[in-house]
Amino acid sequence: MHIVVPLKQSPDLVEELEVNAEGNDIDRQGLKLQVSEWDEQALEEALCLKEASGANVTAITADWGGADLVLFTALAKGADRALKLVGDFSTTMLDNHRLARALASTVEQLGANLVLTGVQSVEDLDGQIPVLLAAMLGWPHVSVVTGVELTADAAQVKQEHSGGLVAELEVKLPAVLGVQAARRAPRYAPVSKVRQMQKGAKLEQLSVAAQDAGSGLKVRRVFKPQVAARAEILEGTAEEIAAKLLAVLRERGLSL
Amino acid sequence: MTGDVYVVVEHWNGTIAEVSFELLGLGRQLAQASGGKLHALVLGPEAKEVAAACGAADVTICVEHDALAGFSPEAHITQLAAILKDRSPAFTLVSNTSKGMDVAPALAVALKVPVVTNVAAVAVNDGAIVATSQLYGGKIAVEAELAGGRAVLSLLAGAFPADHGKSAGAGAIETVVPAAQLGGSRVAFKRLIEAEASDVDISKQEILVTVGRGIQDKDNLPVVQELADALGCPLCASRPLVDAGWLPKSRQVGKSGVTVKPKIYLAIGLSGAPEHVQGMKDATTIIAVNSDPKAPIFDVAHFGVVADLFDVVPALTEKVRELRG
Amino acid sequence: MPIEKEKLLSVEPARIHEHEHLVLEGSDISGHWNRMFEQRVLWDYTPDLLGKITALEGGESLGWCYQCGKCVGVCPVDVVGDYGPRKIFRKVQSGTDLFTSDDLWLCTTCMNCLRVCPKEVDMVKIMPAVREQAMLEGNVPAELQDAFEKTAKYGNPLGEPARKRADWTRDAGVEVPIVAKTGKPVDLLWWVECYPAYHPRGKEAARALARTLVALGVDFGIIGIEEKCVADSQRLAGEKGLFESLAEENIKTLRNYQFRRLMVTDPHAYNAFRNEYPRYGGSYEVVHYTQLLAPLMSKIEWKKELRYKVTFHDPCYLGRHNGEYEAPRAILKAIPGLELVEMFRCRQNGYCCGGGGGGMWLDGFNTQHLRERLSERRVREAVEVGAEVLAVCCPFEVSRFEDAVKSTGNEGKLLVRDIVELMDEARRAA
Ligand SMILES: Cc1cc2nc3c(=O)[nH]c(=O)nc-3n(C[C@H](O)[C@H](O)[C@H](O)COP(=O)(O)OP(=O)(O)OC[C@H]3O[C@@H](n4cnc5c(N)ncnc54)[C@H](O)[C@@H]3O)c2cc1C
Ligand code: SF4
Ligand code: SF4
After folding, report:
1. pLDDT tens across C178-216, in order?
2. Ligand 2 centre from C109 Cα, in Å?
3. Which CATH superfamily is domain B202-324 in?
4. Closest CA to ligand 2's atom 7
5. CA of A34, closest CA in chain C: separation in Å?
6. In chain C, what are the domain boundaries?
7. Segment B181-229, tens digit of pLDDT
8. Do B240 and C406 touch (CB under 8 A)?
9. What value of ipTM does the predicted structure carry?
10. Of B18, C35, C144, C214, which cross-links C174 as Cys (Cβ 3.0–4.6 Å)?
């Protein structure tokens, strides 16, 4: 069983995001990137599967930001191989098609049985990676996965739906699963282990041909929605306040 | 190419999802703007039942087959792609839910059209269609222009008024024979299970009500519990209440409890100590109720109410109940 | 030796016993004290579990324990729970695997046991060594893991953006020079550390200290956003690799600036700079801010009398670990009007707030094993001596004690103040 885990580096939202001078992207100068939190979950689930039933886990990331550290960390956590995709990755918001295409050719070359990756990232504008990747590979896929069990040629997966519903599905391999949550919280990579990897372990490299973006979209404008520095205070009688609160709840996504 | 708009209607066993009305409402608007018709797409053995609720659409297309029961991404995409391929709609609207996430990008690849994710607004101006997405946890908004004039749009639930999609009228019903290859051979839907109520994981909830020491006494807890029940979400607490044993440790929000990121966080009678805030500051919308206007919780909250919780909370509970019927 | 121990032991030990009658070198010393009974099996375990610990570098001394029990009486965790090196030793002897036991995380490395232990069993070395192995095996409490991850990612355990590390200076009311910007050498480089830089209560104390330094005309500066967590508590919690990598970075950063002395707000940082950093090539003349300020008291123009009854909590890492008990007290005594009362446990036997050795990030975990928090216990002790203010000089403590004041129902009775906040109050007109 060969499980491939693509790890996407996306902006760390702890840092304040700014819009660039042209107003067509976020300011990527000095931007702090991190492995997308859902991808961390996917890696954890892959490592759990490896421990439960034996599998080879290959972590992949595209060569930008702190790619090396991302891969050494994956190795420290227990991945068997680490692969850096080298090529022309202009990092913009419209990169998921491009990235998925590069991943598709890589996954084919690696001969993987299963791809586990985060169900989404914080900067998905042109579709989520797992489904794009599956569509390009012609493989079946399931998104929002919260549990995976492997048999020889299939995966039993749990798919989470809103309202506390969970569906059970059986997926023939090879397949792509978009992971929402691993069975346990992502493990810790002790710094000494990461440093040991940095000294001893080898990262593989794979050049990928220049990919056409092909999202069919054009970013017109990027802006920060107005947010007040302090809470907007709702006033009135208890009755009036309750009515205002209800309006806020509905406007902010509470479906009643 | 037509100016037609297609809405993929979501349902479980015949019960239509509220978000589908939002999509129908938006679809109506877009169809008007582009001079096309609004179509609803309903898949599953209960398609006809669901179609009855889709009065806002001009035409509701039903694909009935037992293999479409439950939800198999592969089967649904195969059917949807087969229907939409020849009809070349301007827009296909999908909700950004679990099902929608599986459908939207795959459909876009199959139809060779762009897909826009996390859409919170759509505008048609001067022939150009502009979709506004909320990215980076809602911190940044992006306007994307659809060059070819066609797209699959994946829409955020709660971003559009559902009322516009609810109509007593009845559109035409078109029954489509499922494409020969049901496409269900690789992904099989097994069953639906309800997550056990006993082990709610508060880090995965869309809405949370959290109460602090402002509640004063264990006997007062029903005041907030009733609100949580009305909203259909678990009741959480600041640490002192958990220490006192009023609520289990699994419901403690904060640095030494659980870190949560719900869409809506109602902080009731809690001060907003840094150790608490560390565990909830990334919630999309924070609403605080506190009698002290200087409470630090108002520094992180988006909406605040300076009042006695014992006045405001029961009133809100009442309002929510009225709406829920 | 009258008893040929080895010889006796080699023959059927079960039947050996000595009689009351014994003649030693011609003298009859018969008596009940000579009576010995058959040897019994006192334990039925393997020594492996202890061996696993004593084999570790730093873990050796646990094997020296001879169960005298002195340590248990002074262990602050035992006061609110069931703990202490003697008990740990015995548990390990009788089958507890410390590497997977919850007991591993309760020690705050306060060092009170080492102070009294005749055998120098050193929990301050044992615990980090065992914890490191546990962590490498993937066994870390979630809260602690979170603090480790945040420290590694952002350079502070609170998970705050590095870019905001100097933001607290904005509301200080005085200019706080940042050496990266001024480019000038300073007499005193102030290492602010994470809680004073980010925690709302820590920031207030940092601002009070900044105002005090300016008022005293001290030539000082801070590093600003390049400063990263000193991570001594992370080291003691077992994450030595993290500590080392941050030490290397911080030492490198410090090389870029010219200063005579390094002043720290945090006793944990004080400990690391004094006792650990030299090993990694960073040797500095380090002072805790109380040590800097104590000799300058006569220069201060007080504007207000503070008619409070104040008690002082010795930080473990300033007091026991580094021997400084007087400087904070000298400051408190110099503040006009202030009455200093001591708690029963103070100075060398000072109680621990529970925040050391990783305790700061184990609140939820530890409370499952304790009758009350150490900070709560301490707050009650302060109230018992009639104090109106609990004075502290470690950035972990303000938040811990303030929270404990609330949770013990002492709101309105006891205030928690950093020493420098008291100074600032008395120095500025009402
Ligand atoms: C190491 C450490 C870890 C910690 N971890 C956590 C953690 O994980 N989670 C956590 O929550 N805390 C944690 N704490 C505790 C934290 O510091 C605070 O003490 C705690 O969060 C305070 O809880 P509270 O807001 O409910 O109470 P308070 O701070 O007492 O606030 C009560 C609020 O209720 C308001 N109020 C009173 N009556 C009314 C009324 N009738 N109507 C409306 N409002 C009213 C008051 O104005 C006040 O603001 C931790 C502390 C430490 C030191
Ligand atoms: S170091 Fe302190 S907490 Fe740890 S065992 Fe010794 S006395 Fe107890
Ligand atoms: S004081 Fe030292 S020798 Fe005595 S029981 Fe404690 S650890 Fe053992």
Report:
1. 999 999 999 999 999 999 999 999 999 999 999 999 999
2. 5
3. TPP-binding domain (3.40.50.1220)
4. C75
5. 9
6. 5-32, 43-136, 142-294, 302-427
7. 665 679 999 988 876 555 678 888 889 999 999 999 899 999 999 999 9
8. yes
9. 0.89
10. C214
- Residue C6 — pLDDT band, cuts 50, 70, 90? very low
Please name the residues between 36 and 95 in chain B that touch chain C, using a CB distance below 8 Å: none
At C168-179, the pLDDT tens digits run 999 999 999 999
Helices of type H across B35-59 = 47-51
What is the topology classification, in CATH, of domain A2-207?
Rossmann fold (3.40.50)
All CATH 3.40.50.620 domain ranges of chain B, comma separated, are 5-184
| Class of domain C43-136 as given by CATH | mainly alpha
Residue B134 contacts C, CB cutoff 8 Å: no
Q: Which residues in chain B touch residue A234, judged by CB atoms under 8 angstroms apart?
A: 303-305
Q: What is the structure's pLDDT at B13?
A: 87
Amino acid at B175: T
Beta-carbon separation of B147 and A217 below 8 A? yes
CB contact under 8 A, B278 and C407: no
Q: Please report the atom of ligand 2 found closest to the CA of residue C127.
A: 4
Peptide bond into A174 cis (omega under 30): yes
Q: Point out the ligand nearest to the CA of residue C404.
A: 1
Cβ-nearest to C364 among B213, B257, B296: B257
The predicted structure's pLDDT at residue B309: 94
Chain C, 188 to 227: residues with Cβ < 8 Å from chain B are 199-201
> Which of C150, C245, C249, C280 should one mutate to test binding to chain A, selecting the residue with the greatest count of A CBs within 10 A?
C245
Please compute, for residue A195, the number of CA atoms within 13 A of its CA located in the half-sphere on the CB side. Answer: 14
Q: Look at residue C10 in the predicted model and tell me its pLDDT.
A: 42
At residue A112, the 3 state secondary structure works out as coil
pLDDT per residue as tens digits for the range C352-388: 999 999 999 999 999 999 999 999 999 999 999 999 9
Instruction: For residues B282 and B279, give the distance between their C-alpha atoms in angstroms, rounded to a whole number.
Output: 8
Partner-chain residue, chosen from A14, A16, A191, that has the shortest CB–CB distance to C159 = A14
pLDDT digit string (tens) for chain B, length 325 residues: 578 999 999 998 888 988 899 999 999 999 988 889 999 999 999 999 999 989 899 999 999 988 888 899 999 999 999 999 989 899 999 999 999 999 999 999 999 999 999 999 998 777 778 999 989 988 899 999 987 778 999 998 878 888 888 887 778 999 988 876 665 679 999 988 876 555 678 888 889 999 999 999 899 999 999 999 999 899 999 998 988 889 988 899 998 888 898 989 999 999 998 889 989 988 889 999 999 998 889 989 999 999 999 999 999 999 999 887 6
Per-residue pLDDT at A93? 67
Give the residue, by CA position, lying nearest to ligand 1 atom 25: B270
Regarding the domain delimited by B5-184, which CATH topology (the fold level of the hierarchy) does it fall under?
Answer: Rossmann fold (3.40.50)
Q: Pocket around ligand 3: residues whose beta carbon is below 6 Å from it?
A: C 65-71, 85-86, 89, 116-119, 121
Domain covering C302-427: architecture:
3-Layer(aba) Sandwich (3.40)
Q: What is the mean pLDDT of chain A?
A: 91
Of B213, B240, B274, the CB nearest to C199: B274
Report the alpha-carbon distance of residue A220 to residue A226 in Å, rounded: 18
Q: How far is the CA of C198 from the centre of ligand 2 (A)?
A: 29
